[in-house]
Amino acid sequence: QLQLQESGPGLVKPSETLSLTCTVSGGSISSSSYYWGWIRQPPGKGLEWIGSIYYSGSTYYNPSLKSRVTISVDTSKNQFSLKLSSVTAADTAVYYCARRTFYAFDIWGQGTMVTVSS
Amino acid sequence: NFMLTQPHSVSESPGKTVTISCTRSSGSIASNYVQWYQQRPGSSPTTVIYEDNQRPSGVPDRFSGSIDSSSNSASLTISGLKTEDEADYYCQSYDSSIHVVFGGGTKLTVL
Questions:
Q1: CA A69 to centroid of chain Cα atoms
Q2: How far apart are CA A59 and CA A49, in angstroms?
Q3: Which is the most buried residue in A25, A82, B36, B108, by most CB within 10 A?
Q4: B12 neighbors B57 (Cβ within 8 angstroms)
Q5: Looking at residues A42-57, what average pLDDT do you find?
Q6: Cα B93 from Cα B100, distance rounded (Å)
Q7: pLDDT tens digits for A85-95?
Q8: Residue among A60, A96, A111 minimizing CB distance to B98
Q9: For position A31, what pLDDT does the model report?
Q10: Do A108 and B46 touch (CB under 8 A)?
């Protein structure tokens, strides 16, 4: 059964870069049928799509975050990663990684809380 | 790009039927599939409807999805409400560049 697990620092200082990794187990990240994505949820608020990546490396970013976001994939480790630069308190959120068919996110990680604070 | 607008909250009694709407601000709702996710407190979202009206295996047939071109909206209907259905529900679609759009979410209270 496919599982996704987020990992990375839970605390990031303002103006620094947030870095998270999603490890995929129980299946291959190189499947041509899926994309892999990042979604975040600020405390008490709704879901916000950050971006998605295909195993080939093609990326798709939320226009509102595009200037600060980089998503990459490492097929040898069955992982994909998120970097968000110049963070502020507004970037404090639970960050989820998820598998995406063309249309929908069908498998989600458990999420990891990231707080931006000095 | 477009937005998806949902009511902030809805409430209904156990055993009744509730419908949650999701209105697309521009472009046709029928142009791109709509998905619905359920999120219970402290948990990750799970899919209850995909491709407008398809239910993943394991989702009860009390959950159904539809689209209405006249109101440019999608709807999630839950019949025979149970207390376990109390959760936040999010609609989601995508644009021609496969950018993902989420609705703001609806809190369902089963009282």
A1: 10
A2: 13
A3: B36
A4: no
A5: 94
A6: 6
A7: 999 999 999 99
A8: A60
A9: 87
A10: yes
Residue B100 has what pLDDT? Answer: 93
Q: Which two tokens stand for residue A35?
A: 């994309």
Residue A96: list chain B partners with CB under 8 A: 44-45
Distance (Å, whole) CA A55 – CA A35 = 7
pLDDT value of residue A55:
84
Q: Which residues of chain B have pLDDT under 70?
A: none
Cβ contact A47:A39 at 8 Å: yes
B14 CA: distance to closest CA in chain A (Å): 25
Contact flag B100-A37 (C-beta cutoff 8 Å) = yes
Q: CA-to-CA distance for B7 and B13, rounded, in angstroms? A: 18
Which of A64, A101, A103 to mutate against chain B (most B CBs within 10 Å)? Answer: A103
Percent of chain A whose predicted confidence (pLDDT) is above 90: 91
What's the first-to-final CA gap in chain B, in angstroms? Answer: 37
